[in-house]
Amino acid sequence: MPMISYLPDRRRGQVDCRRVPGGCVVTLAGDIDLASRQKLDAAVAVLRSMPGDVRVDVTAVTFFGSEGLGFLARLLQTVTDGDHGTLTLHNPSRRLLGLVEMFGLLEGFHVSRDADAS
């Protein structure tokens, strides 16, 4: 009988929101999909009370579904309505950038990249 290994799913969506000088950073990693919805909603709720710039780091995202796009739309609305500065999408893949643009969200974001990011 074959042995089955139950290793943790490294692609499971991760959402981390942390305060930095001048604002906050939301780091997304893994698959951002329906299973990530509660974490994404919690991040938006936290960001409502944090004034300043918001950077969304998507460097480690492996999949970005409709829940991720909905998160970006809610985040854009939160930043627009609140006491926030710039909203930056950091290290998006070409595919992700295309999705954000296709859904009309890109004009609300600045885009930044690490010098060594492709």
Explain how this protein is built.
The protein is globular, with a radius of gyration of 15 Å. About 30% of the residues lie in helices and about 35% in strands. It starts with 13 loop residues before the first strand and ends in a 6-residue tail after the last strand. The chain has helices at about 35-50, 65-80, 95-100, and strands spanning about 15-20, 25-30, 50-65, 85-90, 110. Helix 2 (about 65-80) links the parallel strand 3 (about 50-65) and strand 4. The chain has three helices and five strands, in the order E-E-H-E-H-E-H-E. It has a five-stranded mixed beta sheet, with helices on one face. The longest helix has 16 residues, at about 65-80. With about 120 residues, the chain is an alpha/beta fold. The protein has one domain (about 15-110): STAS domain (Transcription Regulator spoIIAA, 2-Layer Sandwich).
